[in-house]
Amino acid sequence: MTDPLSTQRAYYNAIAGEYDSSYSSPYALLYRKELFADILKGVALGGIRVLDMACGGGQNSLFFKEHEAEVVGLDISDAQCAIFRRRFTDSAVVTGSMTAMGFADASFDMVVTESLHHSHPHLDQCLAEVHRVLKPGGRFLLWEPECGSAFDRARKLWYRLDPQYFQDNEASIDIDLVLKAFEGKAVVDRLQYGGNLAHLFVLSSMHFRIPPAAVKYYARPLMAMENMLNKLNSRLFSMWVLCVLRKEASLNTDGTS
Questions:
Q1: In the CATH hierarchy, which fold is given to the domain comprising 4-247?
Q2: With contact defined as beta carbons under 8 Å apart, do 8 and 118 qualify?
């Protein structure tokens, strides 16, 4: 029987360079920077310890490093970790799984990820690990493809038609299941839905085989259009869900008070 972790590692090792070139392009980075700046508005980031879970080459880490946070990376791919290490020579990065991270209990002020959809069918185990490593009062920022939206069926079809960039253990996230897993253990700080043209053709241009150098010619108008459409967006018509959960300050890592 094929080990899904080995398959995932081999897959991301194989596409590491292409993935990093696309997702680290200036406008792809600007796309996520604007989202994070908005949803974390008012949250003090300077000096906090952040775990970038399934970090890739550190695209999310760049935002937190710019705000003077201490960042630690974790990724299943040796090649992605090598890119992260070259990009952030002053930050630690660990090759490992989201389901068994190996960090001490209550060791991070924040965990950030956009890769829970790679944890299927081990989502519950991954979420338990996130809760364990978060300090009381710590935050969990997740940004994931939204299950149940009108676009989710198209995404599933896309998975089948394009196996080069999609794996069998990928499944969009039902935010209700995540919230249920944290019920009594964390509260929702913020929750929003969004994503349309810029998400597809700026952030995810790799999947359309669009060269990163070409993105600059249309990125700004698509991002402006998406920002306007997001104001009218709902869960049904979103491509992603962005959520910040805050661990209850009085709870231990196992959820007891």
A1: Rossmann fold (3.40.50)
A2: yes
